[in-house]
Amino acid sequence: MLGIQRLVFLFIFLACVVENKAADTSHSKRCMDKSVTQVTCEGATYDGYFMKHPDDCGLFYYCSTSQSEAVCVECPDNQQFNAKRQACDASYRANCDL
User: Fold this and answer.
1) Alpha-carbon distance 71 to 79, whole Å?
2) Are 50 and 60 in contact (CB under 8 A)?
3) Number of neighbours of residue 59 by Cβ within 10 angstroms
4) What's the CA gap between 84 and 10, in Å, rounded?
5) Cα–Cα distance between 37 and 17 in angstroms, integer?
6) For strand 49-52 and strand 79-82, is the pairing parallel, antiparallel, or unpaired?
7) Residue limits of the Chitin-binding type-2 domain (predicted)?
8) pLDDT tens series, the chain, 98 aa
9) C-beta separation of 60 from 48 below 8 A
């Protein structure tokens, strides 16, 4: 019985990993497709600095003081980056003007 439980757990774990990989691929593609304007982290004064994406309200950039390149991050579905709160938020609160 314990062997079956381990097998079921392994199957569920692998399914989650495969699903996560597919999500990562589409996320990266959206960031690449929507990133027309070049962005750098030169103005970042602390680790974990977020800045809005200049071309897409559902994306934002993560910056740290240890790297000059901005990392594109996607907000969850139906959310947009709220620059004032420095977080993804409901679109009506995000005040994105793109």
Assistant:
1) 18
2) yes
3) 21
4) 42
5) 32
6) unpaired
7) 38-98
8) 445 555 455 455 445 444 444 444 455 677 877 666 778 887 677 778 888 898 899 999 998 777 777 889 999 999 999 999 999 999 999 998 87
9) no
Closest CA to 39 of 23, 24, 27, 55: 55
Q: What residues pair up with 74 in beta bridges, in sequence order?
A: 59
Q: What is the 3-state secondary structure (H, E, C) of the chain?
A: CHHHHHHHHHHHHHHHHHHHHHHHHHHHHHHHHHCCCCCECCCCCCCCEEEECCCCCCEEEEEECCEEEEEEEECCCCEEEECCCCEEEEHHHHCCCC
Task: Give the amino acid at 58.
Answer: G
pTM score, two decimals?
0.63
Rounded Cα distance, 33 and 58, in Å: 13
Contact 67, 48 (CB under 8 A): no
Take residue 14 and report the two structure tokens written for it.
């692998």
Token look-up 């200049």 returns 54
